[in-house]
Amino acid sequence: MEYKVIIRDREEGTEKYITGLNKAQSEKEALSQARDAGKLVYISWTDANGRNGYLNRDGATDVCPGEPW
Questions:
Q1: What percent of the chain has pLDDT over 70?
Q2: Could you report the per-residue pLDDT of 12-24, keeping only the tens digit for each?
Q3: Which long-range contacts (CB under 8 A, 24 or more apart) does 50-56 make?
Q4: Which is nearest to 32 in space by CA: 41, 21, 20, 45?
Q5: Which 3 state secondary structure label does DSSP give 5?
Q6: pTM score > 0.85 for this model?
Q7: Is the Cβ–Cβ distance between 38 and 22 less than 8 Å?
């Protein structure tokens, strides 16, 4: 499973991506980034079969983009 942390800056309208993380690392990074109220933070995942979705605090979802951390 591959995880990507997506960080959206509310003021600038930009997105930053952090890739190459496992599940625990992505959750830790999302929690850290979400401390900034000016950011919306999401975690997306892709499995070995190419299926993808988003990871919420309460588990995986196929709702795009899921709930911000």
A1: 81
A2: 999 999 999 999 9
A3: 55/3, 55/23, 55/26, 55/27
A4: 41
A5: strand
A6: no
A7: no
